[in-house]
């Protein structure tokens, strides 16, 4: 039984070579920082049910949230691919952006505050339950050591 998510079966296609090239390209781009949000995307691909299966996934998920909690609200360069009207379209888009900037900054800064508060609450809940679990494990160990007969 093949566990690959999909199979390449066209004539004349070297699937192994193709997959190796794709993996090599992705690894190169990841090292270059092209996929800055890739960790969060990878974390989102799974769901919380998978936390039961992987002990380190929750830590990975929280780290991904820490990295992506802030929305970038800085200005960005506006590009236009259409050549004929490019200068006019860029000017129009820049003008619209300048008019709406105040509202978007306000909206995104509020969203950043909410994201930060939700992340802090999640971290605090995690810390609280880890501490509680550790205390219960210590208590069980102490009770087990008292109930064992000494040789």
Task: Please tag this protein with its features.
4 helices, mainly alpha, 151 residues
Reconstruct the topology from this structure.
Blueprint: H1 15-31, H2 38-45, H3 57-68, H4 86-147
Helix pairs in contact: 2-3
Explain what this protein looks like in three dimensions.
The chain has helices spanning 15-31, 38-45, 57-68, 86-147. The chain has two domains: 1-48, no CATH class; 69-147. It has 151 residues and is mostly helical. The protein contains four helices and no strands.
Provide a quick synopsis of the model:
By secondary structure, this protein is an all-alpha fold. Helices cover 66% and strands 0% of the residues. It is built from 4 helices and no strands.
Output mean pLDDT: 80
Spatial shape: flat
**Count of extended strands:** 0
The largest sheet is: none
Strand content: under 5%
Main structural class: mainly alpha
- Series of H and E elements: HHHH
**How many domains, in number, for the residues?**
2
Q: What is the CA–CA distance across the termini?
A: 53 Å
User: Helical content, roughly?
Assistant: 55-70%
User: How many helices in DSSP terms?
Assistant: 4
């Amino acid at each position: 039984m093949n566990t690959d998510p999909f199979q390449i079966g066209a004539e004349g296609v070297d699937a192994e070579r193709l997959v190796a090239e794709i993996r090599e390209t992705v690894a190169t781009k990841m090292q270059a920082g092209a996929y800055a949000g890739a960790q969060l995307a990878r974390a989102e691909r799974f769901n919380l049910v998978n936390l039961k299966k992987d002990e380190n996934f929750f830590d990975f998920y929280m780290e991904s949230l820490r990295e992506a909690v802030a929305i970038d609200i800085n200005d960005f360069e506006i590009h236009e691919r259409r050549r004929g009207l490019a200068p006019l379209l860029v000017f129009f888009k820049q003008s619209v952006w300048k008019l709406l900037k105040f509202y978007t900054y306000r909206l995104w800064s509020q969203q950043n505050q909410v994201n930060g508060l939700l992340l802090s609450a999640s971290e605090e809940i995690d810390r609280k339950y880890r501490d509680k679990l550790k205390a219960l494990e210590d208590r069980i160990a102490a009770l087990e050591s008292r109930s064992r007969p000494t040789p």
